Amino acid sequence: MSEIPSSNKNITTLAANTIRLLSAEAIQKANSGHPGMPMGMADVATILWTEFLVHNPNQPEWINRDRFVLSAGHGSMLLYSLLHLSGYDVSLDELKSFRQWGSRTAGHPEFGLIPGIETTTGPLGQGFSNSIGMTIASKMMHARFADENNEVFRNNYIYAIVSDGDLMEGISHEAASIAGHLKLDNLIFFYDDNNITIEGKTELTFSEDIHKRFESYGWAVIEVNAYDHEEIRKAIKLAHQNKTKPTIIICKSQIGFGSPNKVNTAEVHGSPLGKEELLKTKENLGFPTDKEFYVPEEVSSLFSQRKEELENYYKKWSSKFDKWKTDNSEKAELLDKYLSNYSPENLKEELLNAVPKESNATRSLSSKVIQKIAELVPNFVGGSADLAPSTNTFMNKFSAITCNDFSGKNFHFGIREHAMGSIMNGITAYGGFRVFGATFFVFSDYMRPSIRLASIMHLPTTYVFTHDSIFVGEDGPTHQPVEHLSALRLIPNITIFRPADGIETAMSWYYAIQNKKNPVALILTRQKIDSFERPSEFKPSDTLNGAYIVSDKNAEKMDLIIAASGSEVPVAVEAKQILSDKFSIRVISIPSLELYKQQSEEFKNSLFPNNVPVVVIEAASMMGWGDIFRQRLLTIGINGFGVSGPYQTLAEKFGLTGKHVAEKINEWLK
Questions:
Q1: pTM of the predicted model, to two decimals?
Q2: Which of 126, 385, 409, 468 could form a disulfide with 398 if both were Cys (CB 3.0 to 4.6 A apart)?
Q3: pLDDT, average across residues 176-195
Q4: Active-site residue, 215 included
């Protein structure tokens, strides 16, 4: 069903030119945008969308559709034009309001704004890597639910258009390497090889052999003329026939194709054609110059015909799917759990029971929780950037994904944090899985662009960051995160937990699993944390308020509040004990500053009355705490980088023991 009747193929050029001009006109009207790429790749995109891409504009969330990712997101008008012509909920008026306030046709494709946008792209290399995550997710779905004939959970394809910029960014190396290693044969990239970037010709900075580069990754490489329609069709068919490798189709293209004077120039990369050149382009392509946003009837018919064919295919698939559910009731029930992000009703109790009562490193406590989640939550998957023995994240009762078996729960991402974060986004955006990725907290910097995009897209990914402070110890300042906690807290939408013991760790994971919107990060220790007692009225769910009272000698007459997170909570308790003869002190744990900020002012004032001085302790940069507490405030943290040495020695030298904290408070209150 993937090809349209040959009688329609002679209008492919007309359809491609329609896309060129829709894109160029929208950009001209906005006086902002990137016309070069949509104009250069219009023929490739037209053939893909009208002859090969399997999707359903009336059912854009269909789980078994092919995915199309415009990794070169600066060319967003190419995607918007395709969605409009294909019958998605994208009107011509929305093309005319490109890049304007309140418009869904944003400057770069944004996930969730318009149906048919599979992921937010723009930062180059991210869509490239998201596509690989989507392909892994499709393989995992196929491994779990495919029928014998592969008709219901067909081996669907993930297509992407990638650019020179995508291939220059380092993340593309990491992601392409793992794609080749996993032999992702249903991954097909179209490389827009136009030799132009913003500054000029790519030869200024880019001279590698892309063909050989991708062959070395284990990819199939095909080269085509971006305007030879039969070559393009033949290349896609060859890619479909390849059952052992991902494919990159190198499309030798001309940026701004169709423009008489700006084709093959850097000027057309990121600026409108200009009114005069737009008219000349219409003349050059044989379009009426007195019409704007013109779609010939033949082009509308071409896309309508394809939409009808796809709808008929979807109806047949739905019938087979209904039969599959009847014949495979257990798998059908399991699939419902995947797609609904199921978790058992007693998950909280199970996770709390999974953690031992004695003190331990929170990475070790987290491992106990992960093992239990893996047993109870069927769509829970995840892995580490070659650090599973240190992050304690391998799910022991389950296998790891390999190129020959995608049925496992564990990933070996390799030493590829940047790609890991972006692949996680692709898996989550694909649908059906709850995924986590783990590494040392100091390497969250390598993942930051992907974390930011997960936050923009409201994806419920989970990050497990261990070795959370200078107390990594002997490894020294290169491995001791200091500024990372403050930096991560600056990203909107993410929820961060820095738990202090087993209860807080279990509840952090409970929140992450129940969460259906926005990413969650768990910041965990390598070293053991001393245990501490809580008041009898404490409930584990208090943790999810973001802050709660650990001890409160005399609420009627408080001289001071000491607040802390993670490994510094026992330090705060010890400091209170040392000072208890002089002052009436309340100790508060703040496992999640983000959740605390969401609480009512009444709740916040009940914990931190405005007239009581506050001390905050964290083994990290203290930037930002002055925005939380406007009362008299003392922050005790790290003002520089760490030092190599045993963590107990570092605690002494950096003044992060109960004794040293008590001395600082005593001096401060004089």
A1: 0.97
A2: 409
A3: 98
A4: no
